[in-house]
Design goal:
CATH topology: Serine Threonine Protein Phosphatase 5, Tetratricopeptide repeat
Strand content: under 5%
Protein name: Kinesin light chain
Mean pLDDT: 91
InterPro entries: TPR-like_helical_dom_sf
Number of strands: 0
Pfam family, one: TPR_12
Largest sheet: none
Order of helices and strands: HHHHH
Structural class: mainly alpha
Low-confidence stretches: none
Number of helices: 5
Length: about 90
């Protein structure tokens, strides 16, 4: 589903992409443990869409959340932690 959302994002259909990504995040959280890589990937994809929609505050907050989760799971200097914390 994230690939479908990415396709819509590439086509400029950001509202459709965001709805798909929000659904993927919610479903993933319902069935997976917090910090699971699938949730992190879905949230990162959603943050990118939020950024492209001009929803900067939401994008930054989501990246910070992802960065905090990565830091707890992987450590402060892991590339995933740094990539998501400072976007």
């Amino acid at each position: 589903m994230l690939n479908l959302a990415a396709t819509y994002r590439d086509l400029g259909k950001l509202d459709v992409a965001a709805k798909i990504e929000e659904r993927v995040v919610q479903i993933s959280k319902d069935v997976l443990d917090e910090g699971h890589s699938t949730i992190i990937r879905a949230e990162a994809s959603l943050a990118l869409t939020y950024k492209q929609q001009g929803r900067i505050a939401e994008a930054v907050a989501l990246h910070m959340k992802i960065g905090n989760t990565c830091q707890q799971m992987l450590g402060p200097s892991h590339p995933a932690t740094l990539a998501n914390r400072w976007r």
